[in-house]
Structures are given as structure tokens and as C-alpha cells.
Amino acid sequence: xxxKGRLKPRSAFTLVELLIxxxxxxxxxxxxxxxxxxxxxxxxxxxxKSDLQLVRNAVQLFQIDNGAYPASLDALTNSSAPASGLxxxxxxxxxxxxxxxxxxxxSAPSDPxxxxxxxxxxxxxxxxxxxxxxxxxxxxxxxxxxx
Length: 147
Fold this sequence. Notes:
With about 150 residues, the chain is mainly alpha-helical. It has helices at about 15-35, 40-65; strands at about 85, 90-95, 120, 130. Strands 1-2 form a two-stranded antiparallel ribbon. It has a two-stranded antiparallel sheet with strand order 3-4.
């Protein structure tokens, strides 16, 4: 056979093949990128929910052990019993050192969304309630005030 009759092996992609690959990559990127766009916000939201649950549990344990709510969130981190706490009406109530089983937290967490301290209720009707200081809504559209 002569040289002119043989086919040369292909050594490159055609323009159509390259365009198909680019379109497939663009479609995959269009699907994947929106899922990761607000992942930072979602992680802050999840961290806030977790921190609130942790602090609320610590406040509840403090109240069960001592018969009083902590006067502040910092009282949860004390290694010795504080002199007093709060009753349900917000009035001072003596805490006995023999009832103390703390510390209830290593450190009081801050609000990961707002960057400030968590809000702690010390007035009648809100004693012992822990909430976020963030304003607005989370990544799913739920208000932070509802956490």
C-alpha cells in the first residue's frame, strides 16, 4: 500500500468535542456553585443553634442544681459558687456552696452571627432565656429572633 492511501492517526480534539466538554462543565458549575455560595452563612447559623442549645442546657442544669438561675452567663463558667442567682421573678436568691456542681461551661460562647455576646434575660418573664443578638434572617429566611 502506498503512503497516500493510509489514514493519519488523530492527535487532537475537534472543535465540536471541545465545545461539548465546555458546555457540560458549565452546566455542572451552574448546579454546584449556588449550593456553596452561602455555605459560610449556613455554618454560622448551625453554630449559633448549637451554641444556644449548649448554653440553654447549662442554664437549666444550673437552675436544677442551685434552685436559682445564674445572674449572668459568666456565672456558668465560675469554678466556685456565686453568692447569689436569680429566681423566676428576677429577684436575687442565695446560692449555697454545697449545691454547687459547676463550672457548667468552659467559657461563655459569643454569637457567631452578630459577633457579640448572647442575650440573657434577667427581668421578670425572661429570666434564664438565652437568645441571639443577631438581627435579620438566616440563610433559610428564618428570623434569628426565633432561634
